[in-house]
């Protein structure tokens, strides 16, 4: 006990040393800046990190989007103004990608606009259902929570390769169908089934993460509210719609926004699973940006930067909506 | 104290002197064929014979060479040398090694292929490195299935259509899943297209989209529609993604597989005597019986502080006995003229594989000038990416052949325009 106290005292003294050392500096800063500006001094390290790692890349991206050539060094890149944006937007009709100069950009955008709502709805619906099941007093609850979370820990490439082995022509699923006397299907060859499996695989891979958040939300709902409902003989559907859902709203909002952002950013699983095919049926906007900027040679950094800034703008809109919805809400 | 000071000063001086004189260069290579593994004995011998000079081979994945290396080079970083496959596309990063190598020997041995490394500069006489091996696109055929079906194997000079017809008959008679397959690769398709009369690039380095390409796409799409080729490769995959299904040939699921010489080493280890197979002469199109040449090159980069050591090492590798040793271990086709003429013994390869290698080598004189021109073109990859992307769209009814041709032309022109923006 005495040893622990001695250790604790020594540790406190050790930690206090640098604090004492910078105290005169902080006092000096306070004298110069005044006490009201002192919070900025404390915020500075984090602000600097955000500026360096988040804002600086955005400005670099803006620069690249306004320059041409396949050279990397800014000095080697000629200024082209809005040419990259003009190339992206050069279209006969925005509803018909085949009339656009960069038809694959518009196809990717169209696919993303279909993929995101379908995937987000499936993701939230299934994650909510799973969370409600896991919140009940079922046998092996801990085991099932682990099982549902397990895919989240896998690398996206591992997820995609695993599902490719399951879904390919001679894969496990067709093996099972054949064993059952059914006709095998070449799942990834047809646009609709490839799109379905793209949604399925991404939901399978990320659902566990959202399930955990929703489970935490469910567990924060006071039990006495449910007990009161039980005393009033409310049926399960009424309990779900009148108690669970309203009280889960803040968590659902966070899950919704995170889910939308992740969905728009979907890339690795589909790149490995379908490569954007068949044809261009599952090419999403991030794959388009990757291919233009890094896979196709000569690399068109300018066009990729312009497309990624447009994607950033879309994500910014979603974030602002979230802020707007979250503001002024009281959940007490 | 005094003694300590004297000792530490002496040690420091020795280290600094050694550092000043020691030269070390790093070479990136992958582990397939002519790569780090097969080059290692030669590199070790070089290091032993050249005290104070060290060549360090660093094994990296092929993906690193294709995707990460160009970005490193663009930022003036990366290894001193590497084995690369985008010969023309990276030409602006190469160092001229002419003063450090036996230039006359290089011209004699590698003449035609050295031009691929010079990119768009047709007048250049620079020696930027040495081609490591030649790869040749080609067709593998399952002879056992032909025998079981009682169909005779088409002879040299048979056309693509004749091969397709024969493969269809064999597949039908033997209940084989598919008659023909081709890697999803613009390079493989280029063989088919050039044999149908496509030019792909003209003498001035401009992209060409012509009737030959139209005819090739027409036939190719038709083969996907009528089941001659499976949709798994060109149909199911999108974008510029490279995809192979050589496993189908190894598992006797396909009669005829159009791939390349680099997969030969897998035949001995994975097929052995399970079935009879052969590499056959490249099928002919209306224009020629060409395959596409390809292969890697060991090149030095401009930013290296030791170009003389890079040159000295490459010259050492190019010496016939060293080069022969590596090629034999890699079981690949030599790029050096003298070895093509005199032949190479491959002690680790089976008789069947050696026959297959000779068949691949026999295709070299039949290669069309357009094939060589396309291989050395700086924008070859832009064309190959456009071909894979757009042909897959036609197979999936997203584009007509005419629209795809227009897109291919537009894609390549936009790529060139973006790369050459001033």
Model description:
The complex is a heterodimer of chains A (332) and B (422). Chain A has 332 residues and is an all-alpha fold. Helices cover 72% and strands 0% of the residues of chain A. Chain A has two domains: 1-33; 93-326, Orthogonal Bundle (MetI-like fold). The longest helix of chain A is centred in the middle third of the chain and has 33 residues, at 103-135. In chain A, 30% of the residues are buried. Helix content of chain B is 48%, strand content 12%. Chain B has 17 helices and ten strands. Chain B has helices spanning 2-21, 36-49, 62-74, 103-114, 143-149, 160-174, 186-195, 211-225, 246-250, 264-271, 307-318, 320-330, 337-342, 351-362, 369-375, 380-395, 401-419; strands at residues 23-29, 53-59, 81-84, 129-131, 135-142, 178-182, 254-260, 277-280, 293-294, 297-300. In chain B, strand 1, helix 2 and strand 2 (53-59) form a beta-alpha-beta unit. Classes of the chains: A mainly alpha (332), B alpha/beta (422). The interface between A and B is large, with 44 and 42 residues.
Of all chain pairs, the largest interface belongs to: A-B, 44 and 42 residues
> In CATH, what is the homologous superfamily of the largest domain in chain A?
MetI-like
At the fourth level of CATH, the homologous superfamily of the largest domain in chain B is Periplasmic binding protein-like II
Beta-strand residue fraction of chain B: 5-15%
> Could you give a short account of the major beta sheet of chain A?
none
Question: Structural class of the helix and strand makeup of chain B?
Answer: alpha/beta
Radius of gyration from the alpha-carbon trace of chain A, in angstroms: 26 Å
Pick out the low-confidence regions of chain B: none
């Amino acid at each position: 006990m005495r040893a622990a106290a001695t250790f604790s005292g020594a540790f406190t003294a050790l930690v206090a040393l640098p604090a004492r050392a910078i105290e005169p500096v902080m006092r000096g800063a306070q004298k110069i800046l005044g006490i009201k500006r002192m919070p900025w001094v404390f915020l500075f390290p984090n602000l600097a990190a955000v500026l360096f790692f988040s804002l600086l890349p955005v400005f670099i991206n803006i620069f690249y989007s306004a320059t041409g050539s396949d050279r990397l060094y800014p000095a080697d890149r000629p200024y082209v103004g809005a040419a990259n944006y003009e190339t992206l937007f050069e279209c006969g009709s925005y509803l018909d990608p085949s009339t656009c100069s960069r038809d694959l950009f518009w196809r990717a955008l169209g696919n993303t606009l279909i993929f995101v709502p379908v995937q987000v709805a499936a993701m939230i619906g299934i994650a909510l259902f799973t969370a409600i099941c896991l919140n009940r007093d079922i046998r092996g609850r801990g085991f099932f929570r682990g099982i549902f979370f397990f895919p989240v820990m896998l690398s996206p490439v591992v997820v995609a390769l695993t599902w490719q082995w399951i879904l390919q022509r001679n894969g496990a699923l067709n093996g099972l169908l054949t064993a059952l006397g059914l006709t095998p299907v070449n799942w990834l060859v047809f646009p609709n089934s490839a799109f379905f499996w793209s949604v399925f695989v991404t939901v399978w891979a990320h659902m566990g993460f959202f399930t955990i958040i929703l489970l935490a939300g469910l567990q924060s709902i006071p039990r006495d509210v449910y007990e009161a409902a039980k005393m009033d003989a409310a049926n399960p559907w009424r309990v779900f719609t009148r108690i669970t859902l309203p009280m889960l709203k803040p968590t659902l909002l966070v899950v919704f926004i995170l889910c939308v952002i992740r969905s728009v950013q979907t890339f690795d699983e589909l790149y490995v699973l379908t490569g954007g095919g068949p044809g261009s049926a599952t090419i999403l906007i991030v794959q388009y940006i990757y291919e233009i900027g890094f896979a196709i040679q000569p690399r068109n950094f300018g066009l990729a930067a312009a497309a990624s800034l447009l994607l950033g703008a879309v994500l910014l809109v979603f974030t602002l909506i979230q802020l707007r919805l979250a503001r002024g809400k009281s959940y007490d | 104290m005094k003694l300590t000071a004297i000792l530490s000063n002496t040690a420091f001086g020795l280290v600094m002197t050694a550092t000043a004189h020691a030269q070390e260069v790093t070479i990136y290579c992958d582990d397939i064929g002519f790569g780090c593994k097969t080059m290692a004995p030669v590199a070790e011998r070089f290091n032993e014979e050249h005290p104070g000079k060290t060549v360090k081979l660093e094994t990296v994945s092929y993906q690193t060479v294709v995707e990460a290396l160009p970005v490193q080079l663009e930022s003036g970083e990366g290894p001193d040398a590497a084995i690369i496959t985008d010969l023309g596309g990276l030409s602006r990063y190469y160092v001229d090694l002419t003063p450090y190598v036996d230039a006359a020997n290089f011209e004699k041995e590698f003449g035609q292929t050295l031009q691929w490394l010079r990119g768009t500069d047709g007048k250049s006489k620079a020696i930027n490195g040495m081609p490591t091996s030649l790869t040749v696109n080609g067709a593998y055929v399952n002879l056992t299935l032909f025998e079981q079906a009682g169909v005779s194997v088409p002879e040299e000079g048979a056309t693509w259509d004749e091969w397709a017809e024969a493969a269809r008959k064999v597949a039908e008679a033997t209940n084989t899943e598919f008659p023909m397959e081709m890697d999803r690769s613009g390079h493989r398709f280029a063989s088919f297209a050039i044999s149908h009369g496509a030019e792909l690039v003209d003498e001035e380095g401009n992209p060409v989209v012509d009737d030959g390409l139209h005819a090739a796409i027409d036939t190719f799409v038709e083969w996907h529609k009528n089941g001659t080729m499976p949709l798994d490769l060109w149909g199911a995959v999108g974008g510029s993604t490279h995809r192979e299904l050589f496993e189908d040939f190894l598992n006797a699921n396909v009669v005829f597989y159009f791939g390349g010489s680099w997969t030969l080493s897998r035949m001995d280890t994975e097929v052995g005597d399970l079935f009879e197979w052969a590499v056959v002469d490249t099928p002919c199109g209306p224009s020629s019986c060409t395959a596409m040449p390809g292969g890697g090159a060991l090149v030095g980069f401009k930013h290296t502080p030791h170009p003389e050591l890079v040159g000295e090492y490459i010259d050492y590798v190019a010496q016939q006995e060293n080069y022969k040793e590596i090629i034999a271990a890699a079981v690949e086709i030599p790029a050096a003229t003298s070895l093509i003429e005199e032949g190479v013994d491959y002690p680790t390869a089976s008789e069947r594989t050696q026959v297959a290698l000779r068949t691949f080598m026999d295709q070299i004189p039949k290669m069309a000038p357009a094939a060589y021109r396309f291989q050395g073109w700086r924008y070859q990859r832009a064309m190959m990416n456009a071909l894979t992307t757009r042909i897959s769209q036609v197979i999936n009814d997203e584009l007509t052949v005419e629209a795809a041709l227009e897109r291919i032309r537009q894609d390549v022109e936009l790529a060139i325009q973006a790369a050459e923006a001033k």
